[in-house]
User: Fold this.
Amino acid sequence: MSRREGSLEDPQADSSASPLPHLEAKIQQTHSLARLLTKYAEQLLQEYVQHQGDPFGLPGFSPPRLPVADLSDPAPGHAGLPVPERLRLDAAALAALPPLLDVVRRLQGELNPLALRLLGRLEDAARQVRALGAAVEAVLAALGAESRGPRPEPAAAAVAAATASAGVFPAKVLGFRVCGLYLEWVSRTEADLGQLAPGGPA
Amino acid sequence: MLNASTMALALANLNGSRQQSGDNLVCHARDGSILAGSCLYVGLPPEKPFNISCWSRNMKDLTCRWTPGTHGETFLHTNYSLKYKLRWYGQDNTCEEYHTVGPHSCHIPKDLALFTPYEIWVEATNRLGSARSDVLTLDILDVVTTDPPPDVHVSRVGGLEDQLSVRWVSPPALKDFLFQAKYQIRYRVEDSVDWKVVDDVSNQTSCRLAGLKPGTVYFVQVRCNPFGIYGSKKAGIWSEWSHPTAASTPRSERPGPGGGACEPRGGEPSSGPVRRELKQFLGWLKKHAYCSNLSFRLYDQWRAWMQKSHKTRNQVLPDKL
Assistant:
């Protein structure tokens, strides 16, 4: 493997952070994990729509984009932010996903109790995204760019209660939204880490 | 397409829901975006379950199976609950271990009473209604099955070309209760799928298969019916067949006879009138003579002598010619 020069340097990064060999390895490892989870997230979304019935999964399917507590889509200007800031936003989103995936798993456990593969994938996704979030936090800490201030308590329980009372169709839409957000944020994390990974753009 | 003032509509001739989570009824705006949605569960109420059958393995548990209904699919999640109670007293109990031997089955692992009848039934429930089967009344002792006989050994009978000896052990779990047990043997030639069954093997743990083809590999299995356990008068339930055991008959220098067995069901086409009469004679001896075992041994010794003397005659004949 050729030595890389300047791949970790970001002109807008904190100047006190110095690249270390183990940091490069950690970034590479986290990037690989994000790439793997992106593939799993695509599979999860496909599996999810299969079990909800038409029109979920049909081309042009456009459900209401209801807001999900604690989590929104990546902002349009996300790609223009400095890498550490992007990674902070990625870490925040990854931290918000596990309780939401748990809610979706519980709802699907009632709606599709025999869809064992779907339920297994949702359970795995919550666990895997926790691991990815922790790895991104570790990279940020090594860069001296960790998140500032405490994160708010997750509002997943309130989400679950509200959705359960709203009916089956809103529960299906919530799960579709959460699986979509999961895919968006892990693929966003993969792209952002790619900026830091060896061989990525300086 | 509906207009802005439509407040209700009727949907006719719907097919059953294709997924457990129901079919989606959605309201679209003109641009195709979804304004709202709801879920429909299209299906049928459950039919009366029927054909409940139960068995107890070694008197320790009870497994029951049933048929959900004549028309099958309800298209809705339907819950089946097996209930049971002692006939004259006790409360209703619900079986908890489902799908043990197929989708409509349940297993009761313990705490079963003997000598007292149970009442058993199945309740089916879904969003559109419920149904209950007829009550089956049974005594555990009348539906006992057991394990296949272990240690099945198949061996040659000296040099006899058309016989194999089969020995086995009573299933150990019920060995103290099997004095009236029945056994069945089945055997087949190695490259055949047709089994021949010997079912007159009552209360013995050995049998001799006769009339076999010389120089042939046979697969043999044995099963047990714990008939008469604790005085039960019912037929009992056959165990599974034991694992196949293989053995081969000795080769013969002359063309061997066709198939045959020690007590084949249906008889063999190659059994001639002499063989039939001999069988009848031996059957009579079993009932009226005290030396029935001796007569079988004598018969085998006589057959071995016949084969040896037949070979000797064949050796002599060319000289005589």
